[in-house]
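Deliverable D5.2: sample structural annotation.
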Amino acid sequence: MEKNIDGLLKSEEEKEQGNIFFKNGDYE
C-alpha cells in the first residue's frame, strides 16, 4: 500500500514538473 502511495506521489511530482517545463516552453 505504501509503495502505491509513493508511486502516486512521484507521478504527481513529475506531472507538476512537466507542467512547469511546458509553461516555460522547455517541453519538447
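Annotation notes: Helices lie at 2-24. The two ends are 34 Å apart (CA to CA).
The annotation will be released with the project's public dataset once the embargo ends.
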